[in-house]
Amino acid sequence: MLFIDQVDIAGKKMLFRVDFNVPIEDGVITDDNRIRAALPTIQYALDKGASVILCAHLGKPKGKVVPELSLGPVANRTGELLGKGVALVPGRIGDQAVKMAADLAPGQVIMLDNLRFNPEETGKTPEERGDFGKLLASLADVYVNDAFGVAHRENASVVDVPKFAKVCCAGFLLKREYEYLGEALKNPKRPYVCVSGGAKVSTKLGILNNLLGKVDDIIIGGAMANTFLLAQGYDVGLSLVEPDLVDAAADIMAKAKSKGSVLHLPVDFRYAKTPKAKQAEGVCTAKTIPSDALVLDIGPETITNFVAILKRAKTVVWNGPMGLFETTAFAKGSLAVCKAIADLDNALTIVGGGDTDAVVHMMQLDEKFSFISTGGGSFLEFLEGKELPAFKALKECMNK
User: Fold this and answer.
1) CA pair distance 35, 382, nearest whole angstrom
2) Which residues span the membrane (predicted)?
């Protein structure tokens, strides 16, 4: 796979697939971090005298032109951050996009409107995607994928453009994801600890099964721990649980023992009668969860146990909070885990997933982590050991 700094891009016309799926309220962007994250790659191209065509998606318009999901505000904000005008090619991608791309001069930037206005972008099969990837590829000399957030999706702009592009490469964002998630974890320093939380076991089964035998310790928190407790015969009260995955949880616990990975579950919890509660009603052990309540955070003894494991770690991968961190009373576990990882010296610490990222930024500790992944689903699939469609497409482009 080629990276942008390995390609001659001087004076070239470049098509960038970026992840600018930012939150917008009443036409105003409320968080521009995804735009800012892509700026180094875009600026690098401009400094080399290239012209830039940006393409991205926003929300789920499902193949229809939805004015509220236009990238107009995104084009404006990108222009402000770059210090130059970024013209939007409105509506579906067609003749106007072809003409504006053809007229683009070195140093200029345009942005195609929401890729998902075009139904072919999200077609499930090559036939449904048709020639849309070929059309996009025809706009430029070089294709750059810098959108890890959609690296796991077989969208036309991700997997089809590389088939027709003259030259393909990964931008700096995608390069960092590849280096940290792929290369750095091939031979991790030990102890190697995986921290897995969040609501559902179902979204983490692939990761847990893939990491068994590779990691030294697996810490499990959040509501997904409840399914493991149920598999051990404990009553979890009204807590969120997945009864149909009890056998899968039991299987993971058995495999962990046989493969040499130690699995750590909560031994106590903070609980309440409703997830809307502002205060915990008390602390209970894993064996004494009240039948009329639900657990919403790991308890103090569990925090002590988890922090002790993390303190000796040399490699940590963390995905998923330890509880309902959005409510202050149930954020203690997530915040303690976050601080324990951030405080590690000479350790590789990798974070992924929107909620986990939110915890890190809530504590303003993002600078203390080795790497914060920009992808949710892509991060999970990478940890499952899958080859992401975006990486596969870029490698095949290089070898064609």
Assistant:
1) 23
2) none
Tokens matching residue 27: 């036409």
Angle at the Cα of 296 from the Cα atoms of 292 and 298, rounded to 5 degrees: 120
pTM of structure: 0.86
- Answer yes or no: is 94 a known binding residue: no
Query: Could you tell me if residue 83 is left (phi over 0), alpha (psi between -120 and 50 degrees) or otherwise beta?
Result: left
User: At which residue do the structure tokens 């056998």 appear?
Assistant: 247
Chain Cα centroid distance, residue 387:
15
pLDDT, tens only, 273-326: 999 999 999 999 999 999 999 999 999 999 999 999 999 999 999 999 999 999
Q: Which of 12, 13, 17, 34 is catalytic?
A: 34
Q: Where are the alpha helices (DSSP H) in 277-317?
A: 300-311
Please give the Cα distance from 382 to 386 (Å, whole number): 5
To the question of whether residue 374 is assigned a binding role by annotation, the answer is no
DSSP string, 67-106: GGG-SHHHHHHHHHHHTS-EEEE-SSSSHHHHHHHHTPPT
DSSP code of residue 156: I
- Mapped onto helix, strand or coil, the DSSP state of residue 193 is strand
Partners of 187 in the β-ladder: none
Please give the span between the terminal C-alpha atoms of the chain, in angstroms, as a whole number.
Answer: 12
94 tagged catalytic? no
Element of type H or E holding 54: strand 51-55
